[in-house]
């Protein structure tokens, strides 16, 4: 197991926080410095999606598309055909929400390295309400052949992930959040495409998180420990390709699995883990996330609490899951 | 790399391509007839006169690009590519069959020389715009051009007009679009299904240079492309009026042939029409 350095004061009130989109903004600029083929396109949301850093550094490599998300990804496909590495950004509700077929045909089937960056994903977008709280994007993108799907856990990881995705040669999706979230990783923490990381070892239950839900799971594990439960926390920033070995090893060890994501659990990250476990190693599973419903307006933290996605709320759900579910050990 | 042919030779090539379209569609047992036949003269002009390409080196780095946007008409592109020497003509009979490089709708990764994957309508102009943008602003290669053909029914798609607005804003003068204006789509005539006129005015209002031509007059097609290349401050579109099913009298103007292939008897009859130029010549009877 590779070592994954975590920040020291993770559960302090003053833990460093930043939106994952900010890390993307820095990462894209660095990717542009490292490779002149990297170009960027935005659909009238350049500052919201943090592409303005790239635009300012490389004005000749930035293309404003306007409010036209179908054109956003198809122009990018053309730029890729001409040898560029195009990053496209908008809110996830619109890209990939509105232009999925164009992504399917001109990026995935056409095997062009178009990078779809979906910002403002999840219910934590807040007051804008359900229309802008994209919850179906993980499902939409992971079902596409050739597509890589990355959901960074914090801004530091988002910065690394963006640079890695720039060089992977594949159509890829990066899912980002609007709100500040705690930074749990460090500059030394590893990020490799397709790798999951055990952040904390335990033997009663495996808590698998993607995106910013990993931090909430760390918090839940911390609280569970005070109740005598030993929870293993696995961070899964790459939803596709899924790190099957690390996930199966953890499930084999603890005999119970919980997933958490700020998205529809159906066909989302929880769905991906459910597919894996049911085929390769049936294990009791609880998925935390959105269950067949849309979000609504509210403050970001209120919404996470209301929909059961805070560490505190998860702790209760996980405890109940452990109390009512047999443990399927497969070793020892 | 362009080899120069006389107009008579180009007409003959278009006729050969029509025959190949009929043969391959008959062998496939499915596919679209009317569009490919109607586009044969435009595609012949592109592959054998207008475009700077090298069939022996499909990825030649100085080539012009061609994006077929209305991908269901790809038999005409496959026939032209085989005629030009991208691959052996015998392969045309594998159209739409398992394991073939000639997919029912074009897939870039399957066949060298295809620049894009299309079929779902409306995205070809955007992809062509992306390449044109790269050539004009990023790579500074003013001598290279990007050609695309759209169907007129395809113009119902919003993505087309997003691209039209984009290309107009950025004055993508190396982008040259053709609209195959054959007035049919699957459900009937374009003007019944979803009216397009004033079509010239629509493109002009988006900042495009517009020409209207007879899409069966190869000289007009070549001249229009030449004019389009000379326009340096805006993208160009050539509205090419064509007859769907052109060359096969029982298919001409009939929208039922939009999405249907000929059976054996129909193919035999069609090939006879094409061989004899509808009875005008006796050779090959």
Describe this structure in words.
The complex is a heterodimer of chains A (332) and B (285). Chain A is of the alpha/beta class and 332 residues long. Helices cover 36% and strands 19% of the residues of chain A. Chain A contains eleven helices and 14 strands. Chain A has helices at residues 20-34, 52-57, 69-81, 100-109, 137-142, 155-166, 213-226, 244-254, 269-280, 300-306, 311-324; strands spanning 17-19, 38-42, 62-64, 85-91, 115-119, 148-150, 172-175, 180-182, 197-200, 205-209, 231-235, 238-240, 257-264, 285-290. In chain A, the strands form three sheets. Chain A has a seven-stranded mixed sheet with strand order 3-2-4-5-7-6-12, sandwiched between helices. Chain A is globular. In chain B, the strands form two sheets. Chain B has a five-stranded parallel sheet with strand order 1-2-3-7-6, with helices on both faces. In chain B, strands 4-5 form a two-stranded antiparallel ribbon. Chain B has helices at residues 7-28, 34-50, 74-84, 124-138, 158-169, 190-193, 199-205, 218-230, 264-275; strands spanning 65-68, 146-151, 175-181, 184-185, 188-189, 209-214, 236-241. The termini of chain B are far apart. Chain B has one domain: Rossmann fold (3-Layer(aba) Sandwich), CATH 3.40.50. With 285 residues, chain B is α/β, with parallel strands linked by helices. In chain B, helix 1 crosses helix 2 (34-50) and helix 4 runs parallel beside helix 5 (158-169). The radius of gyration of chain B is 18 Å and the shape is globular. Chain A binds chain B through residues 39, 60-61, 63, 65-66, 68, 70-71, 74-84, 86, 101-102, 105-106, 109-111, and chain B through 65, 67, 107-109, 115-120, 122-123, 126-135, 137-139, 158-159, 162-163, 165-166, 169. Chain B: Keywords: Thiamine pyrophosphate. Chain B: Residues 13-273 form the Transketolase N-terminal domain. Chain B: Pfam families: Transketolase_N (PF00456). Chain B: This is Transketolase.
